[in-house]
Amino acid sequence: MPPETVLTARGLVKRFAAPAGAPIEVLAGVDLVVRRGELVVIEGPSGSGKSTLLNVLGLLEDADAGEVCFADRPVSTLGRGAKSRERGRWLGFVFQSFLLLPALTALENVLLGARYTTGVDAERRRRAMALLERFGVGERRDHHPAQLSGGEQQRVAFCRAVLNDPPLLLADEPTGNLDDANGEVILESLRARAREGGAVIVVSHRPDAAHGAHAVYTLAGGRLRPH
Amino acid sequence: MRRASLINALRRVLRGYLFTIAGIAIGVAGIVALGAMAERIVRFIEGGDRFVLGQISVAGRGMGMGAGFTAGGLLPAAAVEAIRKVDGVAVVQPQVMLPLNPSTSQFMTLTQELVLGMDLSVPSPNRHYRTLPVQEGRFLREGDRRKAVIGASFAASRRLAVGSRLELEGQPYEVVGVLERMLTAPDRFVIVSIEDARDQWVSKDRLLRTVLASGGVALRAQDLNTGAAVGWREGEDPDVVARRIRDRVAGVNVQLPSELSSLLRQSTAFFSALLVGLGLLAFVIGGLSERVRDFGVKRALGATDWQLGGEILAEALAVTISGGAVGIVLALALGHGIDGWARRSGQQLFLFSPRLLGGTLVFSMLLGAAAAAYAALRIVRLSPAEAIRRGSAA
User: Fold this and answer.
1) Domain count of chain B?
2) What interface predicted TM-score (ipTM) does this complex get?
3) How many pairs of residues across A and B have Cβ atoms under 8 Å apart?
4) Are residues B82 and B211 in the same domain?
């Protein structure tokens, strides 16, 4: 029995208006399938459209053409509200610049997604605390992002991404602002996530990101090419 | 548990918006202070309105009433008699109005210190002020000479009370009454009998003394009036009566009661509201725009437009109410401080009415809601990725 398909992308096209001349086609027909337990790494030079692809796959941005399905269900054509609900149900995000909310504590940041999806109950709180402990930032739960190091912020962001146990984790240059040691902690966490049965797509230019990946692609000329 | 989480949420909002709240507070404080000054002006106008609308004011034609009631020409007894005979006129009270100190600028209180001489043999023709409200002592009676009733501001600035002595044009006067603070012209009046006012006029005006001494003009004491307050008969339209006086009596300026324009009042209120509106909108929208990235992140995490809209509305209301309340407290402290200092010279610059304070708070809330709706629409139109990009670039 083949592994369960989590994400399917077919023929994704995305163009951006250029200051002059024809629009720039950043994605020129991208196809991708990701299954449970898979870690997929996407590499490519700066400006090749890696983040745009991740945004389109994560329903953060609409494609000009093509389709995104979660578990074979088309989601890219849904309305804004439905897309938000699908994101809350299916996805976890880890961003390069962490994107923690500065006014919230570490614990509140971890619980942020739950606030809009499952609601924050005692069980969610316990789980959030357990995640912070597991990633070595339990004692920093009441600190605000400005009081945390970059590595600590990214670990908090990782806890936020996995709190609702989403089937698919999207990580955009998750080690881009971290030193090697902290970067390795995050990469290992992503690998572990895949080992535990989650699907993970990582965009990274770091060579060791591909270590342990089930598939590695390079995005060039708007298309994904397998290694 | 729910209450604790609400308190935490409120704390979080207030913490995140500290600078916005401070900005709104300062803005609202300024607006409330301006509003309080406007209220003070409006009260002055309303008081004047009420006074003017209660009578028809007639002055002798001279430099005209536009230069002040005191700058009109003589209104001789013959003119007073002619006015009395006009259809619809019930009563005419001759008056003398003199500037107490013509060199003093009283712009901030919108009035001068004036001596008002009233013919006490005639009942007050003013429908709204049959008697002026006396706080202490009594009002003047027919036959009173060298006695004065003074306005509240005048009393405060000169530290005068009932029984005090007051010197006017070299003559001693006994203060027999102090008026209630009316926040309008009479606050700075010294009211005496018309006979005493005429004496002061002659004593003050060298030209008049020369004319009287020359015997070239047949002037009697009764001719020395600067104006008259005219009352109309029951059922008469005061504007019609005023026009009749203007048409039938030569050499007079007549103030139609309805001519008192409400333009200043309306423009003051409008100007204040405009300032409040622009200030608050800028602060709330600015505060929300700074957090575009945060809203993008929330949408990425699953927040729907409705959830964000509700959150933005609640935050905007919390911020505007907090900022508004702090601003009102600041303005009250500032206004009372300044008024405490100004009161020593008998002035009052601010009037913090419940209407102003309540209105400012309600207005803040409405604007907060409007700003939130506007900001929410702008934010949800962006894709989450675009919101994150814009917020990160800012």
Assistant:
1) 2
2) 0.92
3) 71
4) yes
